Amino acid sequence: MLSSRDQAAIRERLADLKQPVVIKFFEASLGCPTCPEIRSLLRQVTELSDQLTLEVHNLYIDEEEAKTYGVDRAPTIVLTDGSRKDYGVRFYGAPSGYEFATLLDDIRMMASGDSGLSAGTKSRLAELKEPVDLKVFVTPTCPYCPAAVRLAHRFAFESPLVTASMIEATEFPEWATRFNVYGVPKTVINDSEAYALEGAVPEDVLLEQVLATQA
Fold this sequence. Notes:
By secondary structure, the chain is of the alpha/beta class. It has 8 helices and 8 strands; from the N terminus they run αβαβαββααβαβαββα. The protein folds into 2 domains: 4-85 and 97-112, Glutaredoxin; 119-212, 3-Layer(aba) Sandwich (Glutaredoxin), CATH 3.40.30. β7 and β8 (192-198) form a beta hairpin.
């Protein structure tokens, strides 16, 4: 799947990872046509850095593992650190097209131990009292979607109360229909249209919307 040129570029991109990262992939034997392709892609990526480990789980056979990480559908990617700590960073569907760069950026974030958010945002996220769920709907050909996904994932990495998921809308049409996704990126907060955001919004705009859920 990855050309020699792509592999060389990815190897260079991942050359300075400071800490181990575990990629947990949940697949299904039936009803998941993209699972073999995603598994193959992830294996190729993990072979390009000694700091990366891939763990493949069957959603239905490895029920306890899926339950531990709150995964109830496939294909799902969960990124953790070397201790397999769950930071709430999720990919539902293939990280293909523009979103492949998001996967690499998230791996670098996980390995660095720093969300990359501003000090002000970090401080305000520390004040959260209630859980926040961010669902970012994307398509592989959307050039603006990676920015929205990366920002949501940074919020999740920074706060133990935030979970952030990239959702590939064409792979999960029932989700897209449920949340009236007619354009991407669309970020739905706590499964409520009242807190939905369309487009790739700046850090401060997402922060204010997240904090509004705490009122």
